[in-house]
Design brief:
single chain, alpha/beta, Rossmann fold, six-stranded parallel β-sheet, 6 strands, about 15% strand, globular
Length: about 190
């Protein structure tokens, strides 16, 4: 059993009210026997209150906002779905951060691999797990496996999954089963690395 705190930030378009993140939070909490701490950025809180879609603010504003959630932690893991994972990678220099987990890392904007975000991984100094679908439009298998990633980064592939971890019919797997796999992969990695 792990006693470390696990902070999970949402992606750009869907907050912790989304079915995916609710299930993921539940599955990881069950594995760890400790509740995942959801991190909701202020723009998303506003969106959830008003029901009006809002774009996230400029990236540099999100990093201190995530950091404010972990200020009083002695040791923790920071994680995120898509954009939330990108923000989490920027907290690895903090002494309390012992690991980073990214669910669907946005390696590049859709269709624009030339505008890659590999720089977000270059300064990592703690173990980092990226769980990525092989069909992810923001970082598919063919592109990512040709890149040189830091040694502390481990990429685990979910066969046939897209950026939202929906898999092809031939995988014969629903999202709930995939989420359970994500939780298992995360827990095993935490046991080995944290």
């Amino acid at each position: 059993m792990l006693s470390i705190s696990f902070f999970l930030a949402h992606g750009a378009g869907a907050g912790h009210e989304s079915a995916f993140l609710q299930q993921l939070n539940h599955s990881i909490s069950k594995k760890m026997s400790k509740a995942v701490v959801p991190v909701t950025f202020s723009y998303m809180e506003e969106q959830e209150k008003t029901g009006k879609k809002r774009p996230p603010p400029r990236f540099p504003k999100l990093v201190p906002e995530f950091e404010s959630h972990i200020t009083h932690e002695e040791c923790c893991v920071v994680a995120g779905k898509s954009m939330g994972g990108r923000v989490a990678t920027q907290l690895s220099t903090l002494p309390q951060v012992k690991g980073v987990v990214c669910f669907g890392f946005p390696f590049y904007p859709a269709g624009k691999p030339e505008k890659n975000r590999l720089g977000f991984l270059s300064d990592l100094n703690v173990p980092c797990l990226i769980i990525q679908g092989t069909r992810d439009a923001l970082g598919n298998y063919d592109w990512v496996t040709k890149q040189t990633l830091p040694e502390c980064v481990k990429v685990v592939w979910v066969e046939g999954a897209d950026h939202d971890f929906k898999t092809l019919k031939k995988q014969n797997k629903d999202v709930s089963e995939t989420i359970n796999d994500l939780a298992n992969i995360t827990y095993e990695w935490l046991l080995e690395n944290i």
